[in-house]
Amino acid sequence: MRICALLALLLVPVLFQARAESVKDREGAVRADRARFENDARWAYNDVDSGFKLARATGRPLLVVMRCVPCLSCMGIDTAVLMENDELASLLDQFVCVRVMNANALDLTRFQFDFDLSFSTLFLNGDGTVYGRYGSWTHQKNSQDASLTSYKLALEQALAIHRGYPANREALQGKQPAPLPYASVTDLPSLAGRYQRELDWDGKVVGSCVHCHQVGDALRQSWRDQRQPVPEEWIYPMPAPETVGLTLAQDRVAAITDVRSNSPAQRAGLKPGDEILRIAGQPLVSVADFSWILHRTGHAGQLDFTVRREGVEQGLKLDLAAGWRFQADNSGRVASWPMRGMATGGMLLADLGDDERRELGLGLDGMALRVKHLGQYGLHAAAKKAGVQKEDILMEFDGLTARMTESRLLGHLLQKRFPGDKVRVVLQRGGQQRTVELPMQ
Residue 431: helix, strand or coil by DSSP? Predict the structure, then answer.
């Protein structure tokens, strides 16, 4: 077994290189994935129903990997998870494993996770009860990261929860999917008619594939089309622990490495070294479970934390003031691009740092958002057409003049302004102020 494990590790770079090359041909990447896994002994391919059936028959928990195959992000962990090696094989064999590489037939009453990630895993009972979620922004940002420590821990935690089921059913209630206005992906108005539940394997398969991020995009578009405010949790989906002031270790389920000064976490009494065992009574499988709890928390609220500190369990309460979610940073998400088209006409904005503000003679408390990128096509060309240029500095936007991030500005616009509205933008260019009118879309 050790020799097999060594060979598997040696093959990881080879497979990664092959996948990196195949991603240039998106059609080839998807078809190769199907050929590799369609008859795999461990992985059921794009067949969730058979997975649930087998999980009920065997009593094993269900593991469903959601993977956007043509995307380079998360390629490292995807390759590592699929390898036959000692580190994961014995754990994976205790699950019914399903691999899903498109969202077309996704049942939104069962499967809700971070749609912006290219690799996610849901752990479930055969009766549909969700045990937990796994998704890693570390792997998303570094496509070559093949580390498996956090994934292995998630598998172990999910198996522990399964062993305690159904006695622990009440503690899992908060993990279950939330009500959504649409039950299936192809019911979403902007996707209905464009996509079918089955992929077009006889034609352009990639063109017939709904990517996971399109689910969140379509939900936001549905509210936008009805001239309704986009709910906060869908402007800032699955907030990171940093939103409440916590940095967590990468090699633990939920161990705190840093607590930001004057944050909700610090005021709650959380400290570096604490191991978070439960939040709102829910056992954690991974950091993604933390984000799910934040995602399901309202505009304001209080969360009960159970932590282990120096070997002793204790309870703490974390208060979230009204509007806490607007502190989340959504700028690095793929979801931010459609939102920019809706709200800022295709501008990518960055708040100027204190030193640059002083250099330019700007105050430290006012708005100063530099246009780092300007879209050229479709909805993303609206700012350019209105007269905005790259490197302009926005000083006022829709009457807002206070210092804020791009993420905070998007939240305001997507909740207060609707398609057809026009907002006033004051910008600085070459030391001179100019005013433009920007359409909301």
Answer: coil
Rounded Cα–Cα distance for residues 153 and 399 (Å): 48
Distances in Å between the Cα of 394 and the Cα atoms of 220, 232, 397, 404, 425 are 25, 24, 7, 11, 7
Tell me the domains of the chain and their CATH numbers. Answer: 2-175 (3.40.30.10), 241-326 (2.30.42.10), 330-439 (2.30.42.10)
The CA distance from 70 to 27, in Å, is 8
In the predicted structure, residue 3 carries a pLDDT above the cut 50:
no
Cβ–Cβ < 8 Å for 310, 299: no
What is the mean pLDDT of the segment spanning 64-76? Answer: 91
Q: What is the torsional sign of CA 238, 417, 341, 349? A: negative
Task: Considering only CA atoms, give the Rg of the chain.
Answer: 23
Distances in Å between the Cα of 310 and the Cα atoms of 272, 273, 313, 314 are 11, 8, 8, 10
240 pLDDT band (50/70/90 cuts)?
Answer: very high
Handedness of CA 382, 385, 390, 392 (dihedral sign): negative
